[in-house]
Amino acid sequence: MKQFFKMVFASTFGVFIAFMLMSFLGIIFLVGMLVNLGSESKAAYTPRADESVFKLSLEGVMYEEVTDSPLSLILGGENTLSLKDILASIQNAKDQSAVKGIYLDMGLLSTGTSNVDVIRRALIDFKESGKFIVAYADNYSQAGYYLASVADEVYLNPLGALLLTGFSSYTMFYKGILEKIGIEMMVFKVGKYKGAVEPFIADQLSDENREQITVYQSGIWNNIVNGIAKSRRIPVSDVNHFADEGMFLTDPLQASECGLIDALKYRSEVEELIMEKVGQKGNSLKTIGLSKMKRAKKFVREYRNKIAVIYAEGEIAAVPSPYTSDFTITEKLADELRKLKEDEQVKAVVLRINSPGGSAYVSDQIWKQVVELKKSKPVIVSMGNVAASGGYYISCGASKIVAEANTLTGSIGIFGIFPNASGLFEKLALTTDVVKTNEYADLGDVSRPMTPDEMALFQGYVERGYDVFLTRCAEGRNMSKEEIDSIGQGRIWTGAQACELGLVDELGGIDHAIELAAEIANIVNYTIINVSTSKDFIKEFLEKQLDNTKESIVRDLLGDEYEYYRTLQQVKSTYGIQARIPYDLKPL
Asked: Which of 16, 127, 281, 333 has CA atoms 20 to 30 A from the CA of 418?
């Protein structure tokens, strides 16, 4: 028996050692693969003679910047697009003599109107070089069609749809469900247009909020309609007629008769047409994709002078939350700005902001570093889809602000939300008792409503926060606090409106912001460097997978009740003093 146990132990130990050895070799193999993939994804690429067409497939969620992750290439995941990569690819396609045109393959694209405007301008610039653009879609989303309308030829599947519908704004109100579970949200705010708090205290939009949504929504829609009409050479009234009559659900031939598309064709027919344009032979169209085209750039000389571009995307918070947004702006941005101040080769900084705001405290920390950086070198803010509330807070101290016409900005206001869960405690038959040394030692106790004195303290705190916000904006924009207050009050403006009001200096994209930075820094020859605030890609990927796993478990356990849980988590993340707008809507 003793010999038997020895044999069992030896066998078990051997299996364990073999397992450990195989795991170690597997890790070495995986790391080697990741290094190889990473190096391949960065290596320069020269298009072959037969790769005369750049196929730009736009389907998925678009962000300002996406960090390449070899792990995601292996394991897959959500289809994400990088605005930076798309713009670079279009420019590279323009510069490469082998590339004769762009095949714009439109899928379901989720992004904001400002991002679409940037890409449209890049495509128009590409066309001006004498090269062609042909667009196709099985179904055009509103964003997809607005983008595709700049093409020389626009085609739609004979059984497809052109979903040009106009805009609608959807707001969910939580007041009723919170009352059912016995929670009252105590709101303290400054700004009659500060609509972010309304879902917690009302069951419909206020007149002021409805007014501001109507104004900026109409402004953006008019810009889109005018852009489509100009590109397609048709009257603006025809575009609106198509949307108003619900033609997007009728025979797709209507889209052709209205001049919105050139013809109904199947994908194979469109690709044969493109093959004829470039003189390709064979059974299928040969193209070069985005992953290669973004690396197909000409030799660029490196200069000592640098212009740094740093991206700030997502809600502003102390720590990321999986229930709010895919990206989060934290104080790490402030750390990176400090580093750029000390870098003597960096002569100017372009801060690209796409944020609805968030934590007032974190916003102030970032604002401080923007102001400090501006003392030594120009800081140009380039606004993306949205740079409002806290997003505008971190912008206002810059040397200059550049926005897109359809950017949502402003929303200069502040609020605080604190829960009173006494009703929930009563439903659950929970009681509490407190022993304290001072009058306000238990301030913020959720088991009871606030006293009038406590409410006055919090309201005063929020009003002082608003006064600080006004001061920051007034100093940064060289305006009086009274002027800022008159266009503040939490009101949202489009970039075009903000430019007229003095909240923005110029209209344009990130390319214009870079040119402005070089002009103010008085440099002609420079190299653009991109500064990332993201973590190591392996750590970031593993953390995201862990969050996804946790969320999946909760979703499985709660079933249909999961959405209520998610809503409560979003409510929880909004506790405290905030400078943000409700930017959960995707108008395109």
From this structure: 333
Same domain, 483 and 385: yes
How far apart are alpha carbons 446 and 420 in whole angstroms? 5
Mean pLDDT of 329-354: 95
Q: Hey, is 263 helix, strand or coil?
A: strand
Domain range for 74: 53-165+246-293
Would you say the pTM of this structure is higher than 0.85?
Answer: no
**DSSP symbols for 187-238:** EEEE-TT-GGGHHHH-SS--HHHHHHHHHHHHHHHHHHHHHHHHHHT--HHH
Q: Is 389 tagged catalytic?
A: yes
Among 100, 194, 294, 374, which one carries the catalytic annotation?
A: 194
Q: How many domains does the chain have?
A: 2
- Render pLDDT for 288-309 as a digit per residue (tens, 0 to 9): 988 888 888 766 678 899 999 9
Which among 583, 581, 582, 577 has a CA at the least distance from the CA of 360? 577
Question: In whole angstroms, what separates CA 208 from the centre of its chain?
Answer: 26
Strand-pair partners of 288: 54
- Report whether pLDDT(70) > 50: no
Task: Give the CA count within 13 Å in the CB-facing half-sphere of 80.
Answer: 16
Of 325, 389, 395, 573, the catalytic one is: 389
pLDDT at 536 over 80: no
